[in-house]
Amino acid sequence: MTQTTSLPFDRNADRFRSHADSIKGRMRGALIVGQLEAHIPAAQIPLRVLDAGCGTGDLAAVLIRWSKQMTLLDFSAGMLEQAGRRLAAPDLAEVPVPVRLIHGCIEQVDTYLGGEAFDLILCHNVLEYVDKPRKVLGALAARLSKGGYLSLVAANRYGEVFKNALVKLDLDAALACFEKTNTTADLFDGVSKRTFLMPDLEDLAWELGLNILGGYGIRMFTDWLPGQFIGRPEIEPEILKLERAAGAVPALIHTAHDLHLICRKQSGSSPASEGMHQFLQTAPER
């Protein structure tokens, strides 16, 4: 399932950047950053950051203020070019953080990074497009410093149910999503995209010996709001409050567009926190 060509991503880089600038993109970024802030103490900042699959660099442009060095990796030259321009924008001119851009496949991360270690690694909406998610995630986890954090975001299979039923008004397609593990990426010319359930992501983290600090939903309401709400920035703070409150509720997480797992590499500790054990009891069977 690995995408053998970056063309769908290259030719849609501008479209993806526009999506990142939309209410959906702004909510995604604000929720991810807020959820990371809940688990990364300010005393540990600045961090060595790797954004593996950085896209157009919109989240990196926020997290660069947390960084003492930042490495961006993407296999789409078009996306990486956008990211480079974003991090060179005038509003970041006062942030003296060295930035490295690497054009390459995430499957070859060891080739590009050798024995380097990072304090925070972002793997956001990448596992959907690779052939061996566990292998890719394992290579990234091996790059974590002791006590380093891994932020993992992936498409929620149940989110596809809502999208097909409420947005596309295709009830047959919505019903099929309960069984299908793959869908198509509308932003990228319909390329194949894997979807996940929260237990899938937890299993990957446990197999790699990572501590699970928190599991969240990203965008449970924004994608399904009536059209009259879109384009009204004055109500976005209220929507964000609602999304933040719902994103940590186990019963609601499964309705989200994306799933967010925050993990930590810490030797000599159990692979899951007590809080996550409680969360798992509410997760649906696969």
Can you describe what's shown?
The chain has helices spanning 7-10, 13-20, 23-37, 58-63, 77-87, 109-113, 133-141, 157-167, 171-176, 198-207, 236-247, 250-253, 274-280, and strands at residues 47-52, 67-74, 99-103, 118-124, 144-155, 182-185, 191-194, 211-218, 258-264. With 286 residues, the chain is α/β, with parallel strands linked by helices. It has a seven-stranded mixed beta sheet with strand order 3-2-1-4-5-9-8, sandwiched between helices. Strands 6-7 form a two-stranded antiparallel ribbon. Helix 4 links the parallel strand 1 and strand 2. Helix 3 (23-37) packs across helix 11 (236-247).
Name some characteristics of this structure.
alpha/beta; seven-stranded mixed sheet; two-stranded antiparallel ribbon; 21% strand; disordered C terminus
Shape: globular
| Total count of strands | 9
Question: Can you count the helices?
Answer: 13
Mean pLDDT: 89
Reported for the largest beta sheet, the result is:
7 strands, mixed
Low-pLDDT stretches are 269-286
| Fraction in helix | 25-40%
Terminal residue distance: 21 Å
Identify the strand order in the major beta sheet.
Answer: 3-2-1-4-5-9-8
Radius of gyration, taken over Cα atoms and rounded to an integer in Å:
18 Å
| Category from helices, strands and their pairing | alpha/beta
**H-E string:** HHHEHEHEHEHEHHEEHEHHEH
Share in β-strands? 15-25%
